[in-house]
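Quick look at the format.
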Amino acid sequence: MQRRHLLSSAFAAAVSVAGVTQASTIDQFEGKTRPIDTMNRVKGWQPGAVEPIEIKGRSIGTGRPKLIAPTTAKTPDDLVATVKRFAAMKTLDMIEVRIDYLGRLEPKQYADVTRRAYEAAGDKIVLVTLRNGTDGGPFIAEDDYYGEVYEAVLTEGRTDIVDIELFRDAAMVRRLVDTAHKKGVKVIISDHEFKFTPDEGELIRRLLLEEEAGADILKLAVMAASPEDALTVMNATAKVRHYYSNRPMLTMAMGKWGVLTRITGEGFGSDLTFASVGGKASAPGQIPAEDCLNVLEVLHKAMNPQ
């Protein structure tokens, strides 16, 4: 070890005398060494970059995670009223219009509701979601019906973003993604596990499958049974950001142990987070919007001192 230190010191001194900038140095951390690229900026050495998405004057992928509040109204009129109330809240950046809470309607009825909701949302980003019963929704939406609903929303309704589930008929998913992009609508492709947290490699695989399917934003939500599960989600998110993808992400662990994943996204690579309004959450572990924003702002300022 002494000989290695002597050689490296001699090399550093020689380089300094020659006036040459070292391409990499060694950063000592708890007895482990990490190579740090200081000159070449070779891909993989530096923290991963994200290509932000700009919608309604907001940048998804820069700054603190943007705040989303979901609707849980069960009638069209109540949904529109909820959206109007959310639109007046300065804390929120995005409103998730959960049309599945309205029950099983005709596709055209959903499209009509989204037009009304979009108008009520003002300058807030609108995300339309039909969540299947297997992924946390109130009823089972078969592939054919699911596809018809989103076709109607995209062609006759109004939205900025749609959420499409990953594990659907692949041809249908691709068709909906293509339709959305032709209409200028961004796509979240999502996956949910309400009973457990898959291992890190599987989480990474699913996020990359979403990108391969054409997602503009990658989404993953799993249930955490321990602090280790939450760390698994954060590690997978950080690795996808650092090594594999420049797409914005929305990742979280649900439940008590997953709460920290909802507020630490700026450090690990999750660019959006859900919060509750009026105590009405669409998934376990959502933090009240005002509290969530305060914590996000504190962390953002601490990570980006002036």
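Next, a different chain entirely:
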Amino acid sequence: MERSQTILVDTHSHVFTEEFDEDRDAVIARSVEAGVGAILLPNLDDTSIEAVMGLADRHPGVCFPMLGLHPSYVEADYKDRLAKIRIALEQHHDRCVGIGEIGLDYYWSLEYKAEMNDALRTQLSWALEYDLPVSLHARDAIMDTIQAIKDVGADKLRGVFHSFTGTVDELKAVLDLPHFYVGINGVVTFKNNDLKTFLVDNLPPERLIIETDAPYLSPMPKRGKRNEPAHLVHIFEYLTTLYGMSASTMRDKLFASSSNLYNFTVR
């Protein structure tokens, strides 16, 4: 990428996980070389805090941490896990760009539905306390997630519905929230996905941010391989064509959306 170009921002990437233990620094170097100059790191649970913060320390100005409890890790002991994450947040909130990854996941199991909802509302309150945006996981649970936001304070909360794969009506409901963005990743490039049929007419680029969700959901033509931040360029190129914009215009709009939501300073 030429220095004069605006960088791309991978707003959701788990490059701190074990899938990258053998080549993490090389993955980040490839990202920067490809023009993806910022990688945001949503935490998973209390055991991944050290990895998230350590990677941010290792690559300042490129990797930016978030802290939160992913809904898939909400079980009977969720309050203990939240307490540990809260301690870390108190220590590192001035370095964190958001609270995340938090939310609801009704796809795998409803066993801890009540606990997930309580954990979500607790962490939304943290976002208000520390004036941080939230990165939301809302699998098969978009409307309940919206209700939690309204309950805690939709007029003040801000954030993104990451990895959006909902319906057009759910998209419109998200956009009715005044300070929320929609995160689109490699799923939009899949041949059997319906997102492409209604995105352009319903999602203004000013409310769009992009992500990889690495190591998951590799876009075409990398589908089936481990995802990584450098693959964000394929999502960017696909959306640029879908929206019928020039690359420079789309790049500038995406950077503006990402930097409006998240407070980060790239190197």
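The CA atoms of residues 46 and 81 lie 6 Å apart.

See the schema section for token definitions.
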